[in-house]
């Protein structure tokens, strides 16, 4: 009996350990996925950025080449494209998210908008480029209809669809639904009692938004805008499908360095440019995490 009594606590203690080990085992696929598709590619890019042509020897030539005028210009256009599409997407998506937040939580409007936002936020790449070409391209049905019925030709001053303004328009298309998805929870965190308290103290709607709701939502709004910036900065397929001549943004410059048949031996320069993108996105996401932490403190 004494032996049984001594073994019982050991079985009780080993039970939680086994359950904990089983829980950790369930995370193995996730960490394997992160290692294969995030950590290892990042290490390959970081190592290649400091490796000479042919994969031999340490060098800073690739990093120094980032100071070339055409690379700086490509980074500048990428930052401008990401900032503009994030700004437009944040403002328009924020307004749409606010309209949805005022609807019934279990209503049809909210379910439809959130479902569509989830789909459209992932609608990009070649299919999105084709959709805009078919709609407002040189022979798109909207372009032809406007020209035939109103005499207005949207490309009268140049084919802007294949340049930076066109990319801003197309990127904004998938930024708006993404903003709805990431900003709607913050709007849901605003409690009706706060507005009632403001009104009971004689506050106006303007004072409520500028002194109560606005400051509380500002970190969430800025954090969502930073997420939109990172989303646009790293986008590639849509721009690659639209822009066939030249490399106006840095992802297309990287493609040119890796696949060019004219100038060979620039693969490590492409990795150096990719490392620059990784650093910029890492800084942006670190700021996003800080803002999300502050948002959770007030609206969680």
Describe the structure.
- The structure is a single chain.
- Helix content is 77%, strand content 0%.
- It has helices spanning 2-26, 28-49, 61-64, 69-101, 108-120, 125-136, 141-149, 164-188, 192-200, 205-233, 237-242, 250-259, 267-299.
- It is globular, with a radius of gyration of 26 Å.
- The relative contact order is 0.12.
Identify the notable features of this structure and list them briefly.
300 residues; mainly alpha; 13 helices
Percentage beta strand? under 5%
Uncertain regions spanning at least 5 consecutive residues? none
Q: Biggest sheet: strands, sense, closure?
A: none
Helices and strands, in N-to-C order?
HHHHHHHHHHHHH
Give the overall pLDDT as a whole number: 86
- Given helix and strand content, the structural type is mainly alpha
- General form: globular
Number of strand segments: 0
- How much helix is in the residues? over 70%
Number of helices: 13
Radius of gyration: 26 Å
Distance between the termini: 53 Å
Described by its quaternary structure, the protein is: single chain
Can you give me a brief rundown of this structure?
By secondary structure, the protein is mainly α. It contains 13 helices and no strands.
List the helices and strands and how they pair.
Elements: H1 2-26, H2 28-49, H3 61-64, H4 69-101, H5 108-120, H6 125-136, H7 141-149, H8 164-188, H9 192-200, H10 205-233, H11 237-242, H12 250-259, H13 267-299
